[in-house]
Amino acid sequence: MPFKDYGGGYPVVLLHAFPLSAQMWDRNAAAIAAAGYRVICPEFPGFGENRNFGPVSTMDSMAESVIELLEHLGIREAAFAGLSMGGYVLFRILRTNQRLVSCFALCDTTSRADTEEKRLGRFELITQIEREGSKVLAEVMLPNLLSSGLVTRRPLLVEDLRRRFLQCDPEAACSALRGMAERPDSSDVLGIVKMPLILIFGAEDKVTDLECAQEMADTAVDARLVVLPDAGHYSNLEDPEGFNKNLISFLDLHLATH
Ligand code: MLT
């Protein structure tokens, strides 16, 4: 599994969102590495440099690849952060290999499985992508992910996201959409694992909203919820400073003895 590797120190694994790649973490990874950590950003099947994917990229197969990668690197324990689809994968890692996780961040994600409506929406999106290609992602999906003022505030970020959505391999996108549609509910995991958790959410996230965030914070054993004002679904990209500050202070607090 291809990955980006930054800095040195205690490992922090960042799991990317759909339909992006490890590149989405560039600014975050640089700041976390500068704070004294080794940052590892794997690329899921079909995204970035990872050209190895089948018809359905399940969250379980993505989790297994991350676990194998860490084994290959000789890493027995790490801090993890997963944003949206990355969070779905992190739930699968917590389910099967919680000893690998010392503390974790769930960002703009949900422990819930898709509702029937959401699942049907994904299959409609797949049909559209099969017909018209990745421009459907940029035209139909992207606008819903951004905070309301972003186009005016950060036009270059919006343009960059649009370009990355257009560049996404349409078959890889469909494969991951099928995998997300069939992911099971993971809500019970949060009541089982005891490791410290930070939830970082954009206040304007319309996909995985603050109701999802609050529900997870209430279920978890040791959780803190941080809401970044004005940020949308990709809170790490819309407010990298706020995201980095909160994640790094969480890591410093819980990893001081490592
Ligand atoms: C993501 O950002 O990874 C996706 O929006 C997740 C999803 O479609 O559920």
The major β-sheet equals: 7 strands, mixed
End-to-end Cα distance: 27 Å
Proportion of beta-strand residues: 15-25%
Number of strands: 7
Helical segment count: 12
What does this structure look like?
The protein is an alpha/beta fold and 258 residues long. The chain is built from 12 helices and 7 strands. It has helices at residues 26-34, 59-72, 85-97, 116-132, 135-145, 150-153, 155-167, 170-181, 187-192, 210-219, 235-238, 240-255; strands at 3-6, 10-15, 37-42, 78-83, 101-107, 197-202, 223-228. It has a 7-stranded mixed β-sheet with strand order 1-3-2-4-5-6-7, sandwiched between helices. Helix 1 packs parallel to helix 12, helix 4 runs antiparallel to helix 8 and helix 5 (135-145) packs antiparallel against helix 7 (155-167). The protein is globular and about 55 Å long. The two termini are 27 Å apart. The model has no long low-confidence stretch (mean pLDDT 96). The site of D-malate has 7 residues, from loops.
Fill in the keyword field for this structure:
single chain; 258 residues; alpha/beta; seven-stranded mixed beta sheet; 12 helices; 7 strands; binds D-malate
Short summary:
With 258 residues, this protein is of the alpha/beta class.
Could you outline the blueprint of secondary structure elements for this entry?
Blueprint: E1 3-6, E2 10-15, H1 26-34, E3 37-42, H2 59-72, E4 78-83, H3 85-97, E5 101-107, H4 116-132, H5 135-145, H6 150-153, H7 155-167, H8 170-181, H9 187-192, E6 197-202, H10 210-219, E7 223-228, H11 235-238, H12 240-255
Parallel strand pairs: 2-3, 2-4, 4-5, 5-6, 6-7
Antiparallel strand pairs: 1-3
The structure holds D-malate.
